[in-house]
Amino acid sequence: MPIVATLPHSGTYVPEEIAMGFEPGHHAWLRNTDWHLQHVYDFLPDLGITVLEATHSRYVADLNRNPAGPRFGAFFAAVVAERTAQGAPVYAVAPTADDLATRVSRYHAPFHAELAAVLRSYVDRFGRVVLLDLHSFMGPIANDVCLGDGGGTTCTSAILGTVQGALGAHGFDVVVNTPFSGGHLVRCHGALPGVDALQVELRYTTYLDCARIDEPVVPAVDPARIQQVQARLRPAFQAIAWAMTR
């Protein structure tokens, strides 16, 4: 299929030399990870959709942040977050400028280079390709899904409508660009010739037990909830894949 999906924030691996600089307890929690999305979307290859999954935590290097911007700082802007989204400090010992440069070259750049190569190969083969950048969230909205196309800049309205319609037809409450309009991944790769890119944010509550989501524990995999959401996601993505091949 001319569709590529990315999972940039579901990884949890942190190299020891980086973890040693974290605040006590942060490594054990890694709050704001896109928990267990690799399990939620494990059906995508069966549909012919190529998946690129990050192995490393977003706290090593956030693949959805622009390396031309701040290397270290605000959670929603920097490649390496100084604090969590809730303002808790990540580091007891802050990384140096050399450390940050190494993280960009070692962890951030290779993922984007691989993704760009895959997208180019699909454009060469099919003439076009759709990138679906898959994430999950808890707040600040109560909707099931938020789609982000950079305010109409990263994909066509037809593709946005197809994805929105397919998810809506299977019971998902979908909003567009509010509050998540798409990060660096869709804005960078959606600018490539022949590439349409769309960010897809799935609310934690659709597949996780969120009773302890604000406590410093990793949410457990919930097979029953995952099966329930897959019963709606799979046919939705089947419809999307079918539409992309017409």
Which strand-content bin applies to the residues? 15-25%
Q: What is the terminal separation in angstroms? A: 11 Å
**If classified by CATH, what would the architecture be?**
3-Layer(aba) Sandwich
Strand order of the largest sheet: 2-1-5-8-6-7
Given helix and strand content, the structural type is alpha/beta
Q: Count structural domains.
A: 1
Q: Please give the largest β-sheet.
A: 6 strands, mixed
Rg, rounded, reads 18 Å
Number of helices: 7
Q: How much helix is in the residues? A: 25-40%
Q: Tell me the name of the CATH homologous superfamily.
A: Zn-dependent exopeptidases
Order of helices and strands: EHHHEEEHEEHEHEH
Task: Write a structural description.
- The chain has 246 residues and is an alpha/beta fold.
- It has one domain: Zn-dependent exopeptidases (Aminopeptidase, 3-Layer(aba) Sandwich), CATH 3.40.630.40.
- Helices cover 34% and strands 15% of the residues.
- The strands form two sheets. A six-stranded mixed beta sheet has the order 2-1-5-8-6-7. The protein has a two-stranded parallel sheet with strand order 3-4.
- Helix 5 links the parallel strand 6 and strand 7.
- Helix 5 runs antiparallel to helix 7.
- The protein is globular and about 55 Å long.
- The mean pLDDT is 97.
